[in-house]
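Example 3.2
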Amino acid sequence: MAASLPPFPRLVFTVLEPLSLVAGFAGAVYDPAWFVAQQIPQHKPLPASENSIVLAHQLGNMYLGMCLVGLALFWTTSEARVVRNYLIALLIADAGHVGFTWYGMGSHRFMDVSGWNAMAWGNLGATLFLALTRIAYLSGLFGPDRQGSAAITAQKKSN
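Structure, written as tokens:
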């Protein structure tokens, strides 16, 4: 199915998004104290507790799992409906991710874009970019999907 996506969404969903998930995994697993401390932009981050370290490891594991599920789906299915439903599910998750980040940061920090640290840009900027790309793709703004060999073969059989 990845080959049938228009070029820009294919690049975003099959290269950039998996790379960002691997980066999230690496940050959360290799330096969980830093990962936890950077979640909310502040002058003097609070130290990470043992509980938050475990949560960072678990979140990192979820990032890696999401990366693997997404790659498996895009590279193995030939069903456009499956991909569209997957992207809708991710769009709903994007809204939750942004909403919970906003809640945790508070409106003042959320609206102070110039004060965002790298983690805030990853949590908000990257997620909003992915959400907008999903909306644009699902709305057809990138044009129709290309018909792959499986779709062409199925179409020939039905005629």
